[in-house]
Specification:
The protein contains four helices and eight strands; from the N terminus they run αβαααβββββββ. The termini are far apart.
């Protein structure tokens, strides 16, 4: 190619990239909320447990045993890292391990669990999506109003578009307990 052809090619490539970026920016954004300061969560805990852990540990951790939830934090972290890497065949980062610890502790204590995977911002609304324990009743409250959230059999859920004004609190209720999650403060319940 001659210099002139290369210059035209480069100019066309730059314009194409800018058009793609503008299209993405104007079409709404998805914010991955799976970052607690220790990296992005690549393996959402509820679905990851189901696909990589339940075959040995039973559905919802039925074979953990009562002492599992009482393990010291460091020992639990080491155990979960080994299990995710070894039998799970995963390559977890610190955030993945932290999220799985929280989920495993919820299972061991028979408590509800909520994990927010993303928040989609469109015009003047926001839609959250995430995972919870199957069989959990999930709702979102803001400014005195409550929105019931439908969860799938797999525990996955998504809110409809809501106005981003006010203070949001997710509430999960099962037969024995209630937990709350504030999206601005945490991405999963402990």
């Amino acid at each position: 190619m001659e210099r002139r052809e290369i210059a035209v090619f480069m100019k066309t490539s730059v314009i194409s990239v800018l058009l793609v970026l503008c299209t993405i920016l104007l079409s709404g954004n998805t914010i991955n909320l799976g970052d607690n300061g220790s990296g992005i969560v690549k393996y959402p805990p509820v679905s990851t447990f189901k696909s990589s852990c339940a075959r040995c540990h039973g559905p919802q951790g039925a074979s953990f045993g009562e002492d599992f939830g009482k393990l010291p934090q460091r020992e639990l972290e080491r155990f979960i890292r080994l299990m995710m890497k070894g039998p799970g065949g995963l390559n977890p980062n610190k955030a993945d391990i932290d999220a799985m610890i929280a989920y495993s502790q919820a299972l061991a204590k028979h408590r509800p669990f909520i994990f927010i995977t993303s928040a989609d911002t469109l015009t003047n609304t926001i839609s959250y999506s995430g995972e919870s324990l199957p069989g959990t009743t999930l709702s979102l409250t803001s400014q005195g109003e409550t929105l019931q959230i439908k969860t799938g059999k797999d525990g996955k859920w998504r809110t409809g578009p809501v106005a981003p004004s006010g203070h949001f609190i997710f509430i999960a209720v099962d037969k024995t307990d209630t937990v709350r999650l504030e999206p601005g403060k945490a991405l999963w319940t402990n």
